[in-house]
Amino acid sequence: MMQTDLPRRLAAEALGTFFLVATVVGSGIMADTLTEDVALSLLGNTIPTGAILVVLITVLGPLSGAHFNPAVSLGFALTRALPWRELAPYVAAQVAGGILGTFAAHLMFEMPMLQASATMRTGPAQWFSELVAAFGLMAIILGGLATRANAVPWLVGLYITAAYWFTASTSFANPAVAIARALTDTFSGIRPGDLPGFIVAECLGAALAVWVAGWLWAKRSA
């Protein structure tokens, strides 16, 4: 990562999360408009999300690390790659960018900007799915950085594309995205009251991945 001052890194995090959420929410609205087939709508939501992650991480990664995710930022703070004093500003930038991304998606599709989701996503299976999704995401990032750093954008994009389909929760894996999705009563929404379970599971999954990845890819002396 190039040496970039904190304001520009925060701007990169906000901008990246903005476009990530605008893609998640906007593609969900588009897919739901074009078809009544739920599986096809999910596919129409999945592909743009994976694609935009490749683009955003490639372009903004050299500036801020391209976390776009408080759980990932927590993971990097645990590895000391991100100073703890910068964790709160990173999270604030990500959440703000994500909320603005939801608002932008609503405006692009001529929908009310301010909404609250009524889509129920709760229960042990959903929480465990989010723990697994966030664990996998953090492990993929750390493993990629340890083995082939230039492939991380593709690794993350492909992982999220797959995780949409192998998790019961459709792999939010991101507290900022979850908060932003609570503000849309569309295909990708989540009830605000269901957020705590998701956020706790996501952060726990990322923290566990730091521990496991630190053991798997530990540098050993010859």
Give the structure's gist in a few sentences.
By secondary structure, this protein is mainly alpha-helical. The chain has helices spanning 6-34, 38-64, 70-78, 87-108, 124-147, 152-166, 175-181, 195-216.
Rg from C-alpha positions? 17 Å
Q: Sketch the major β-sheet.
A: none
pLDDT below 50 for ≥5 consecutive residues: which ranges?
A: none
Total beta strand runs: 0
Transmembrane segments: 47-66, 87-107, 127-146, 158-183, 195-218
Family: Belongs to the MIP/aquaporin (TC 1.A.8) family.
Membrane topology: Multi-pass membrane protein
Main location: membrane
Summary tags:
222 residues, mainly alpha, Glycerol uptake facilitator protein, 70% helix, globular, transmembrane, Aquaporin-like, channel activity
Topology:
Blueprint: H1 6-34, H2 38-64, H3 70-78, H4 87-108, H5 124-147, H6 152-166, H7 175-181, H8 195-216
